[in-house]
From TrEMBL:
It comes from Pilimelia columellifera subsp. columellifera. It comes from the Bacteria. Keywords: Methyltransferase, S-adenosyl-L-methionine, Transferase. Residues 52-147 form the Methyltransferase domain. PANTHER family: METHYLTRANSFERASE, UBIQUINONE BIOSYNTHESIS O-METHYLTRANSFERASE, MITOCHONDRIAL. Pfam families: Methyltransf_25. One of its GO terms (biological process) is methylation. This is Class I SAM-dependent methyltransferase.
Amino acid sequence: MTDENLWLRRLAEDPNHSQWYVDRFRAMASEGADLAGEARLVDAMAPRGSRVLDAGCGSGRVGAALAAVGHEVVGVDLDPVLVAAAEQDHPGPRWLVGDLSRLDLSAEGISEGFDVIVSAGNVMAFVAPATRREVLRRLRGHLRDGGRVVIGFGSGRGYEFAEFLADVEAAELVPDLLLSTWDLRPFTDKSDFLVAVLRPAG
């Protein structure tokens, strides 16, 4: 297993990968594809006007959908091309370039915590394995009291679900709910996707 950020490795192999990703989702949006499934789940968890952090926001589709229904959104992603696309396509939320393993939004003048932190799009499977627990700790540290973290990623990406749940425990988070899809289907030992709703332990 490599111990590097897999998104950065893809960019090293193909410098045009970020623009391909942006173009792909722009095309899907123009064709009327439903790109807001993750946002609907998060919206159902959060009172209107909640503070939401889109961790690994990519080109902004999840955070933008949440902002459109009245939430205050901040998005962070490692890739400046994706963040620039989010700023262009979805003005309103605050989009920032940043490494989740070093996340400290107070350095950006953002001192208030979040009601919900969402990390969709297989983000946790892309971060460097050595940083996974630190990413989870950093996310926990940005929650308001009573806040929750929602993380979704697929199997077969070098991050077993059991390993993830061990990392969750090590980061002093506990699962509130485990699902196999963003549309609320139960998680089982045969599921090939995990959506974990987490809260701080204790």
